[in-house]
From TrEMBL:
Family, as annotated: Belongs to the short-chain dehydrogenases/reductases (SDR) family.
InterPro entries, A to Z: KR_dom, NAD(P)-bd_dom_sf, Sc_DH/Rdtase_CS, SDR, SDR_fam
A molecular function (GO) term: 3-oxoacyl-[acyl-carrier-protein] reductase (NADPH) activity
Originating species: Arthrobacter hankyongi
PROSITE patterns documented for this protein: ADH_SHORT
Keywords: Oxidoreductase
SMART domains for the chain: PKS_KR
EC number(s) per entry: 1.1.1.100
Stretches assigned to the Ketoreductase domain: 6-184
Protein name: 3-oxoacyl-ACP reductase FabG
Record flagged with keyword Membrane: no
């Protein structure tokens, strides 16, 4: 098991893709620190992991807050050992067409995706460099290629790809890889909230999305967790600075 004696941080792990990533890394043998704003989601996750014999803690923290992130990473190191895997998964959407997009919609999306990923990676990198082994895995999106109504989100997700490639250059000499995963349509509360905003049932929304995806289905959180498991593994040590589209086709 890759993760034996190693600690991973997963942000936005209170539900959805992040919760599934946390479960997958735990079963790969990692001790897991799950960070989220939502206390109840973290409690449910860590109770399940602990009951299954894994070592996990939940930390309620806003990843866009510098001091909160520094404390969360320090607490992880104290309680679970140095975090050498970071999965920057926490995310929000504040969709609107450009002419209707508020500055607050722009700023909030940038703060969670870009500032948050920067803060968590910066706080954890010293542990990776000291260990001469590390993995940074960033959640981008097919929206990085452009998506109507998501000027803020697509810019943030494209920004994360540049961030990933730069970390790969800077941290590679210390045994640390950095990669991004760009999911297509994944069934979570995020996509459910988009269906609700558009006034269509989630069933109709996923069926329509599936018909446009080459493999003719929408994705599940486990599809993304599988890719994370690979990037976090020892066997992926020569793969860095890459963006893997996990979208049922070349793009969704
Ligand atoms: P989700 O169900 O909305 O879950 C996101 C989690 O992130 C929530 O638990 C949320 O907490 C947490 N979060 C938000 N802001 C935070 C902050 N400032 N600090 C700490 N935690 C925060 O989303 P998902 O669908 O699982 O998506 C996970 C990641 O994949 C995101 O980065 C998303 O952009 C990306 N992605 C998703 C899809 C998709 O189709 N679902 C496609 C491409 C990319 P609260 O609930 O308390 O707000």
């Amino acid at each position: 098991m890759t993760g034996q004696q190693r600690t991973a941080i997963v942000t936005g792990a209170g539900r959805g893709i992040g919760a599934e990533i946390a479960r997958r890394l735990a079963s790969d043998g990692f001790r897991v620190a799950a960070i989220d704003l939502d206390h109840d989601g973290l409690d449910a996750l860590t109770a399940g992991l602990t009951a299954a014999g894994h070592k996990a803690i939940g930390i309620v923290s806003d990843i866009s807050d510098e001091s909160a992130v520094d404390s969360a990473v320090a607490r992880t190191a104290d309680e679970l050992g140095p975090p050498v895997v970071v999965v920057n998964n926490a995310g929000i959407i504040r969709d609107n067409l450009l002419y209707k997009m508020a500055v607050s919609d722009w700023d909030q999306v940038m703060n969670v995706h870009l500032r948050g990923s920067f803060l968590v990676s910066r706080a954890a990198q010293k542990h990776m460099v000291e260990a001469k082994w590390g993995r940074v895995i960033n959640l981008s999106s097919t929206s990085a290629l452009g998506n109507r109504g998501q000027a803020n989100y697509s810019a943030a997700k494209a920004g994360l790809q540049g961030f990933t490639k730069t970390l790969a250059l800077e941290l590679g000499p210390f045994g640390v890889t950095a990669n991004a995963i760009a999911p297509g349509f994944i069934e979570t509360e995020m996509t459910a909230s988009t269906a609700a905003r558009l006034g269509v049932s989630f069933e109709d929304f996923t069926a329509k999305a599936a018909s446009a995806i080459p493999v003719r289905r929408t994705g599940k959180p486990a599809d993304i967790a599988n890719a994370v498991s690979f990037f976090a593994s020892d066997t992926a040590g020569f793969v860095s600075g890459q963006v893997l589209y996990v979208a049922g086709g070349p793009k969704a």
